[in-house]
Write a structure and sequence with these properties.
It contains 3 helices and 4 strands, in the order E-H-H-E-E-E-H. By secondary structure, it is α+β, with helices and mostly antiparallel strands. The protein has one domain: Alpha-Beta Plaits, CATH 3.30.70.20. It is globular. The termini are close together.
C-alpha cells in the first residue's frame, strides 16, 4: 500500500485528494476517504493537497495511525 489516509480525514473529508489522483484510486468510505492500494501508482499527488495532512506514504505513517493501513486493506478486501 503506497499511500494511506489517516484519522484527520474523518473530521475533514475535503476531497482535494480525489480531484488530483490520476488513477481514481481514492473513494469515500463510510467515514473518510480511502486509497485503494491495488490501484494506487505511488505518485504522491494526493499528499501535498490534503488540507489536514492526513495522507502519508505507508512507510511514514505515524505509529498512532498505523491502524488506518489495515482499515484501507479491509475496506478493499485485501
Amino acid at each position: 500500500m503506497p499511500f494511506v489516509i489517516t484519522s484527520p480525514c474523518i473530521a475533514e473529508k475535503a476531497g482535494d485528494c480525489v480531484e488530483v489522483c490520476p488513477v481514481d484510486c481514492i473513494e469515500l468510505g463510510s467515514d473518510q476517504y480511502l486509497i485503494d492500494p491495488s490501484i494506487c501508482i505511488d505518485c504522491g499527488a494526493c499528499e501535498p493537497v490534503c488540507p489536514v495532512e492526513a495522507i502519508y506514504h505507508e512507510d511514514d505513517v505515524p505509529e498512532e495511525e498505523v491502524s488506518f493501513i489495515e482499515k484501507a486493506k479491509e475496506h478493499y478486501n485485501l
